[in-house]
Design brief:
Chain B: Its main location: membrane. The complex is a heterodimer. By secondary structure, chain A is of the alpha/beta class. Chain A has eight helices and ten strands. The mean pLDDT of chain B is 89. Bound molecules: adenosine-5'-triphosphate and magnesium ion (MG). Magnesium ion (MG) binds next to helix 1 of chain A.
Chain lengths: 259, 256
Amino acid sequence: MSAFVAFDHVSLAYDDSGNAIEDIDLDIHEGEFVAFVGPSGCGKSTFMKLCTGLHAPTAGSIKVDGVAVTEPLKISGMAFQNANLLPWRTTLDNVLLPLEIVKPYRHQFRKRRKEFEGWARDLLKTVGLADYEDQYPWQLSGGMQQRASICRALIHQPRLLMLDEPFGALDAFTREELWCVLRDLWEAQRFTVVLVTHDLREAAFLADTVYVMSSRPGRVVERREIDLPRPRALDITYDKPFIDLVHELRAQIGEIRST
Amino acid sequence: MNVKRQTTERLAPWIAVVVLTLIWELTVRLFDVPSFIFPSAWETATALVTYAGPIGMHSWQTLWTTLVGFALGVAVGLGLGFIVGSSRFLYNACYPLLVGFNAIPKVAFVPILVVWFGIGSVPAILTAFLICFFPIVVNVATGLATLEPEMEDVLRVLGAKRMDVLLKIGLPRSLPYFFASLKVAITLAFVGTVVSETVASNQGIGYLMMSAGSQMRMGLVFAGLIVISAMAMVMYELFALLEKRMTAWAHRGQNR
Ligand SMILES: Nc1ncnc2c1ncn2[C@@H]1O[C@H](COP(=O)(O)OP(=O)(O)OP(=O)(O)O)[C@@H](O)[C@H]1O
Ligand SMILES: [Mg+2]
């Protein structure tokens, strides 16, 4: 199986202050769920920008689906660290936004609007926002905004889903609830997911592969396959194998920070 | 309590008008100012009623020329603002020019306009236009040019073209700026029209004041002043209302 996302010795320097990301060399397969963990400022968001083509690398090359990335991808959905919802649109209209942009939907938008709204409503329902469709983003709590932003990333059924600390601002309960939502969506559709997170439990629970990055300049210092059986229930996060795994990852991050 | 405060708040501007009128009337009487220098409020009111016919006709002239000039200003301002704000290069290139143009007193254009178009409504319309399009251009261009990169990224990862970004995010985002500038622009448009009428017209409030002034009928001159400011205030309130309607999201949390 050839790689869906292929990073070939990629580095990026924003300015003269040196590389933000250095010599990243990795392959992600179609349908794989990968997670990136690492200390703050190590270049995780930068990795996302490279992957989606928002930024061009200063060295090396990136291929997605066999094609070199030279401009922003058209097959990806992305949820950012901040929800970035548009304040003049209702939650429903915010979620519909990608369908107004992405081909082929953009040309069908007027004709199929009712149908599309149905998709958006279903999606909002799965993340528990059914009653908030017609509210404006500033009337929602931070966590609710983040959920809407995940819906927006998924509405056009992207083959590549990029999530940059989507659950970072949420309380522990909501976070675990949304892990399960994401798990179910992924089990059902099997898109490729790149998830950036600070939370090792989150990474271990959701991902097939966890990459650990070093502090700046960001390098991949560890690739870890998580072979816990799927589908995973939330309960496994309290079992010994899972806890041991998280401990090991934790120890690795500790080492990075001390050097 | 709350209702009471709301009514006082609503009444406040009217109270201010009444107080100001009283002070005006009293001062003129107290110091016995001759009416050909500074007419009293009462004389002004009398003039307003006596010459209601001509004042109405000239106000109508001023109003429609202002509105036509303003409409032109909005169209050109929106278009130019969109073009200038849509690219960093054009923004940098045009901004100093616009500022320079804005610094020219618009009354200096009136003689030129008279040479080109003759005396009448056209110079008034064009002066109103020239004076009012600048704030619109600046506000729309700034609104577009200060677009947050994060917002832009949301669309760019979907493969959006520059035009998509401008139409879906840039334009709606700059609407509050646009509507705020309309309030400023409409009052400026009145200034433009009246200035032009005083020098180059035989109609309009500006002309009326000019000719009344030359006959020392100061009551009528002041009546003209009152009419102009009343028209400007009404238009301002109209656009303030429109602004609130169209961009409620930008005033979130302020509860009207
Ligand atoms: N637009 C930019 N211009 C210049 N430097 C930048 C820019 N964006 C990020 N950097 C720098 O690149 C490095 C990596 O930043 P990045 O945002 O990728 O970190 P991160 O791993 O996502 O951190 P966090 O976990 O806190 O979100 C940082 O040192 C940051 O200062
Ligand atoms: Mg980040």
